[in-house]
Amino acid sequence: MTTSVQSSTAGNAAAATTAAASQLSATQDRFLTLLVTQLKNQDPLNPMDNSQVTSQMAQLSTVSGINQLNATVQALSASMTSAQSLQATSMIGHAVLVPGNEIAMAKGSANAAVELSQAEDNVTVKISDAKGNVVRTLQLGAQKAGIADFQWDGKDESGTTLADGAYTYTASAVQGSTKSTPTSLTYGLVNNVSLTSGVAQLNVGNLGDVALDAVRRIL
Question: Phi, psi (5° rounding) for residue 130?
């Protein structure tokens, strides 16, 4: 996987550099052809001013500089993509915390988290089964801004331990009289990495493809 990602990004960088060089060469050829034609067909009694030639050469230099800058930026972007891809492949087999409202219970326990943009007086989590029925409500109390972890003991409101499996949850928060909806976060296992339009995507089981910048935590 790492080798294929490296080859892909390196190939993209080489292609971008080659294309930029080809475009620059074509631009220079067209300019020189036009300049030679102008010199051949100029009026001998009224020849081109040296300042005109100098001005046109300066324009070509500017265009060449811009094309070279574009090629450098493209190569740098491809290099950054390669580094990002390598970083992503190192996450294969690791659990990550990403946006999502799933909470998987195994052996009578489940973990998830919410992300808060500000401190809240109280955060409430409602856990539902596959049919959408709320089976447990958790009061997390006051929480600071950032990621707030919580654990569910796998029991419903009556204290009965429920079956292992996939559940979902919703979270709400209140500060004074103002209500808000925190971002739900869930844990998943990274199975593989793919490149989509030059961007590294993590395949996180049932959660599907997740962008690298969406990862909040790596275990």
Answer: -65, -25
The tokens for 75 are: 């190569």
Contact 189, 93 (CB under 8 A): yes
How many residues are there in the chain? 219
Type of residue found at 192:
N
> In tens digits, what is the pLDDT along the chain, a chain of 219 residues?
444 444 444 455 555 556 655 665 666 677 667 766 766 676 565 655 556 656 766 666 676 666 666 666 665 555 555 666 667 788 889 999 999 999 999 998 999 999 999 999 999 999 999 999 999 999 999 999 999 999 999 999 999 999 999 999 999 999 999 999 999 999 999 998 887 776 778 999 888 898 888 999 998
Separation between Cα atoms, residue 198 and residue 31, nearest integer Å: 34
Residue owning tokens 């230099």: 61
User: Cα(100)–Cα(29) distance, rounded to whole angstroms?
Assistant: 55
Number of domains within the chain:
2
Domain holding 114, by residue range, is: 95-188
Domain of 135, CATH number, reads 2.60.40.4070
Answer yes or no: do 69 and 110 share one domain: no
Buried b (16+ CB within 10 A) or exposed e, 162-178: beeeebbbebebeeeee
